[in-house]
Target: SsrA-binding protein
Amino acid sequence: MAGRGGRGEWHAPQTNKPAAPTGRDTTTRTVVASNRRARFDYAIEDVFEAGLVLTGTEVKSLRQGRASLVDGFAEVERGEAWLEAVHIPEYTEGTWTNHEPRRRRKLLLHAAEIDKLAQAAGQSGYTLVPLQLYFRGGRAKVEIGVAKGKKTFDKRQALRNATDEREAQRAMRTRTRVGE
Model:
């Protein structure tokens, strides 16, 4: 009978010390680039977080805050997810080892997530759009949205709703200031 379990199994000794830090803060996001246009042009129905396979100069360029997601999209091909047309400029201090700015980059996802993305992208009118590029715990991540294109009148309606909401918030703020 070892430990305190009574049935022969071993238990780690209890201490009052907190767990040792892992060295990576996985709670904070350092946003490098965001695709604000995507939320205007598309109705985002689902969001996935994916890792990226990058070269060293790409990571250094991202750490300088240089990237553009404007023309980017994702696709699933032969069971693998790829990020296309995302512009990560060459690293300014790089030499002949610099990367190609608009190269195709592999996305790191679980197989079940890739299947969901492939199924969603296969539906008529749906596409996979990068929404944000950021660092979490020292790793570069991209937020991929399953999106359906909006019609022009939908975009106008969304603008009207946003304007009305802003005006209502402004009216509430002035009302609370006057009442003080």
Remarks:
- The CA atoms of residues 28 and 53 lie 21 Å apart.
- Residues 152-179 form the longest helix (28 residues).
- The first strand starts at residue 29 and ends at 34.
- Helices lie at 36-41, 56-63, 111-122, 152-179.
